[in-house]
Design brief:
Helices cover about 30% and strands about 25% of the residues. The chain is an alpha+beta fold. The chain has 2 domains: about 5-75, no CATH class; about 85-160, Elongation Factor Tu (Ef-tu), domain 3 (Beta Barrel). Helix 2 (about 10-20) packs across helix 3. The relative contact order is 0.14.
């Protein structure tokens, strides 16, 4: 048994079950015996998937979410909360000049929302990703304002100023 995932998949389970049926019985797909044991083999394969996931949840390096919290609590450790990424954004008018905007303005990029939190310099601001964890660290590019901002030509999400942790994602 080199690969347990393969050993416990539907095809291997049903073949092992069929091997226990006498050769005098029709075992082809669609036969009565095949159709009778196929649902059972499918349920057994599902059970092995759940069992593997359950085993993974019992180890700190493969556990996630509330199960990882429970493992940490067993040894007196509390996980850090996920935090929000802080990124640098540059705001330009239609003539490519840096412009100032209001603190609190919100922008989107893909499925993320960034909120302007602090002015660094003319047209350069800190923005905080509204989703906790590392997702806010990944993307860069042109932001789209949620509300109309007069005079704004483009907003560019650039550097990661404070990368954030992945905990509790």
């Amino acid at each position: 048994m080199e690969n347990l995932d393969e050993y416990y998949d539907f095809e291997n389970i049903i073949q092992r079950m069929l091997s226990k049926v006498p050769d005098s019985v029709d075992k082809r797909e669609g036969s009565i015996i095949y159709d009778a044991i196929a649902p059972c083999a499918a349920e057994i394969a599902q059970m092995y998937i759940i069992l593997k996931d359950t085993i993974d949840l019992s180890f700190a390096d493969t556990s996630v979410g509330e199960y990882l919290d429970k493992l940490c609590n067993q040894v007196g450790i509390q996980r850090n909360q996920a935090t929000n990424s802080i990124r640098k954004v540059e705001f330009y008018d239609e003539s490519e000049n840096l412009i100032d905007i209001s603190i609190g303005e919100r922008f989107t990029l893909n499925d993320l929302i960034y909120k302007v939190t602090k002015k660094i310099d003319t047209g350069i601001y800190e923005c905080e990703c509204e989703i906790e964890g590392t997702k806010g660290n990944i993307v860069s590019g042109t932001l789209i304002p949620i509300n109309y901002i007069e005079g704004l030509g483009k907003a560019i999400l650039t550097d990661i100023l404070i990368p954030r942790r992945r905990y509790r994602e």
